[in-house]
Amino acid sequence: MALYIGFDSSTQSLTATVIETEAREAAHGQRTAAGGTRRVVAEHVVVFDEALPEFGTTRGVHTSADGRTVTAPPAMWVAALDVVLGRLRDAGIDLADVRAVSGSAQQHGSVYLNGDAPAALASLDPAGPLAPQLARIFSRGESPVWLDCSTTGDCDALTQAVGGADGLALMTGSRAYERFTAAQIHKFARTEPQRYAATARIHLVSSFMASVLCGADAPIDPGDASGMNLMHLAISEWWLRAVEATAPDLLRRLPRIEASWSIAGPIAPYFRRRFGFGDAKVVTWSGDNPCALVGLGLIEPGTLGISLGTSDTVFAVKWRSDPDPSRSGHVFASPAGGYMALTCFANGSLARERVRDAYGLDWEGFSRLLASTPPGNGGGLMVPWFVPEITPTVAVDGPVRQDLDPADAARNVRGVVEGQAMAMRLHSRWFAPAVETIRVTGGAAANTAILQVLADVFDAEVVQIAPPNAASLGAALRAFHADCRATMTWSEAIAGFTDPIPGAGARPRREAAAACAALLPRYAALMESAR
Ligand code: ADP
Ligand code: XUL
Questions:
Q1: Could you give the CA distance from residue 519 to residue 203 in angstroms, rounded to a whole number?
Q2: What share of the chain is helix, strand, coil (3-state, %, to 5)?
Q3: Cβ–ligand 2 contact at 311 (below 6 Å)
Q4: pLDDT digit string (tens) for 99-129?
Q5: Does any ligand 2 atom lie closer than 6 A to the CB of residue 389?
Q6: If you ran DSSP here, which 8-state letter would residue 436 be given?
Q7: 240-273: per-residue pLDDT in tens?
C-alpha cells in the first residue's frame, strides 16, 4: 500500500486529501477495484479565518477600502501547513507510508523572498513551528492574490511593450489581466523599487508551498506558469520579451519552469522529524484549476468542468493552444498533457453569499427559495456584479437587475444563480459550444438546487464525483502519477478515483432548459449594456 497527499492552498482554506493505492499493481496495468484498494483515506480542511485568526483575514484575504487591492499573508499559508499536517498525524495517518506529496494553489498570487530564504528553508528546526522560522524571508509581507484588480495601468504598459493584446494572448494564452502575475510584479517594481531590489526570488503560491515542503527552491509547473502572462505557452519556457517588459532584471528572480510531474526534491527533514514522514518525494505543485481538471477526471476533451469555489470557473481540456478569439478566457497548460481552456468569474460564492445574507437566509433557506421559483425566473434577470468582475472585466461594482424587484427574495435568489449560470454558458462557447456532461466541484457543488440550475441552463447532465475537493484530489493524483509515471498512463492513474457518484447531480428538464435558452440573448445584451 502506498499513500499520496494532495494539498489545496486555496483562497479561504488549506485542504489535505490523502489517497491510498496499490501503486505497484497499478503500475503493471492491473486495474484495481474502485473503493477497495484505491480510496480516499482522509480529507482535512483548515479554514484560515477560523484556525488562524491572528492573521486578521476575512475569507482568507485583506481587502482595501475600495475593494481593488487584495492580498494575503504568505506566513498564514505556511502556518496552515503545520496545522493540517498536525491534524493528519493526530488522526492516526502513518505519514511514513507517504510516497509522494503534491499540491494545488490559488492561481496568479505571488510570493516575494529575500536573499535569506534559501538558508532559512534549508535549516528548519523541527522543534518549533514553521511560520516564526520563516518570518524574515519575505521581502513583501503581503502577497497580491487573484482577487486583486489594482493593476489596470500596469496591464496597459505590458500590452503596449509586447506589441498588443493579440500577440500577448497568442504567446501566453491570455491578454493582460490585472490579477496575472506579470501585472502584479510590474506594479511592485514600479511602486516599491527598493523592496523589489531586495527580492531575490518571486514564487507563485504553488511553487512557494512546494519550496517550503522540500526546503529548497522549487520549480513552477507549466499549468500555473500559464497564469502569469510570462510563459511562451507552446514551449513552456519564459517568454523573454514579456519578462523584460515586466520588471528590471526579472529573469534571475523567477524559478525554473519544469514539467508538472517533475520531482522538486525529497521532503525536508523538518517534516520527517516533526510529523513522521519517511522519504516522500515532493512533486511540483500546480494551480488549483489545472489540478481540479485532473481531479474531475478530465484528461481529454469532451466534458465540461465547473468549479463553484470562491471564484466560479468553467473549463475543459483542449488539444490546441489557440486563445479565446474574444480575449475574455484563458488557455493554460494541462498537467495531464494538452491544454486547458478556462473562463473565471470573480462573483462566484461571494455573490451567492451577498444575496443569501441580504435576505437573512442560510443555505437551506436559499436552496428552498431557489427550488420554489420557476426556471427563467418569470423573465427577471440579475447580472451579479457585487465585486469587480473579471469576465467581462468590470471596474464598477453593484448588481444590475432587469424586471426584478430587489425586495423579492425568492426571485433574487434565482436571479443570482441563473445569471451566473448564463454567464458561464455564454463565456464557455468559445471552447465548448455544446456539452452533454458537466462535472462539478467546489464548496457550492454540495448544493443540488444550484446544480439543477446549471443542468437547465446548459441543457446538460451535471455529475458529481465522490471526493468533494477535486483540486486537492487532483494534486494527490498528480503525486501518484508522477511516482508511477514510468509504467502508468493518466487514465490508469485516475481510474477508481474520479468516477461519478451514481444518482447524484442533476439532469436537465426539457421545459426548464427551453425557458433558460430563451433568456440567453437578453442576458447577453444586459451584460453588454451594463459594462
Ligand atoms: P475556495 O477553494 O475558493 O477557498 P471552496 O471551494 O472551499 O472555496 O468553497 C467555499 C464556498 O462554498 C464558501 O464561500 C460558500 O459560499 C460555499 N458553500 C459552502 N456550502 C454551500 C452550500 N450548501 N450552498 C452554496 N454554497 C456553499
Ligand atoms: C483563475 C482564478 C481563480 C483562482 C482561485 O484564473 O483566478 O480561479 O485560481 O483560486
A1: 44
A2: 40, 20, 40
A3: yes
A4: 999 999 999 999 999 999 999 999 999 999 9
A5: no
A6: S
A7: 999 999 999 999 999 999 999 999 999 999 999 9
